[in-house]
Design a protein that fits this description.
- This protein is mostly beta strands.
- It has no helices and eleven strands.
- It has strands spanning 2-7, 10-12, 18-26, 28-39, 46-51, 57-59, 67-72, 77-82, 91-101, 107-110, 114-118.
- Strands 2, 4, 5, 6, 9, 10 and 11 form a seven-stranded mixed β-sheet that branches. A four-stranded antiparallel β-sheet has the order 1-3-8-7, with no helix packed on it.
- The chain is elongated.
- It starts with a strand and ends with a strand.
Length: 120
């Protein structure tokens, strides 16, 4: 009924930039918080950034000043601008959103992820 699809990942050199996009589709009544998580093999998935329905934001300490999360409520999209990328930012980045679909209840959805690789 609802799906999240990430895009914008890729290979970038240290110090470079990428912009991720998360598109929510389906019969959506409302979307609450939207978040970006990341995960590397063998480690827990970690919260990177969150943006509320009112566009309040929070960031992990490791990305503060470098990443910016935003959203376009009319398009049901969230974005993450990533600047000054470091090799340790390499991970699969996942979009997460709390969504109220039509004919359903509030549900937490995950995208399939997009790979970000920061390497020389």
């Amino acid at each position: 009924q609802v799906q999240l699809v990430e895009s914008g990942g890729g290979l970038v050199q240290p110090g470079g930039s990428l912009r991720l996009s998360c598109a929510a589709s389906g019969r959506i009544f409302s979307i609450n918080d939207m978040s970006w998580y990341r995960q590397v093999p063998g480690k827990e998935r970690e919260l990177v950034a969150t943006i509320s329905s009112g566009s309040s934001t929070n960031y992990a300490d490791s990305v503060k000043g470098r990443f910016t999360i935003s959203r376009d409520n009319a398009k049901n999209r969230a974005y993450q601008q990533m600047n000054s990328l470091k090799p340790e930012d390499t991970a699969v980045y996942y979009c997460n959103a709390k969504v109220r679909p039509y004919s359903s209840i509030w549900t937490n959805y995950w995208g399939r992820g997009t790979q970000v690789t920061v390497s020389s």
